[in-house]
Amino acid sequence: MLEKFIKKARFFADKKEKEKNGDEGAPLKEQEAAKLSESLSENVKKIKSDVHDSNDIIIREFSFGQNQSMKAALVFVDGLANTDIINRSIIEPLMYKYSFIDFGQGMYENDLDEIKRAMLSVSEVKDAVTFDDMIYAFLCGDAVLLLDGFDKALVISCKGWERRSVSEPITESVIRGPREGFTENLRTNTALLRRKIKHPALTTEVFVMGEKTKTPVCLAYIKGVANEELIAEIKRRLKVINTDAILESGYIEQYIEDAPFSIFATTGYTEKPDVVAAKMLEGRVAIIVDGTPFVLTVPMLFLESFQTAEDYYSRPWFMTGLRFIRCTAFLISILAPAFYVSISTFHQELIPTDLLFTMVAAREGIPFPSAVEALIMILAFEILREAGVRLPRPVGQAMSIVGALVMGEAAVSAGLIGAPMVIVIAITAVSIFAVPMQADAAAILRVFLLLLSAAMGGYGIAMGLLAIMVHLASLKSYGFSYLAPLAPVELKDLKDSIVRMPLWLMRTRPNGMAKGDSRRQGDFVPATITDKKED
Question: CB-based burial of residue 308 (10 Å sphere; 0-12 exposed, 13-18 middle, 19+ buried)?
Answer without folding.
Answer: buried
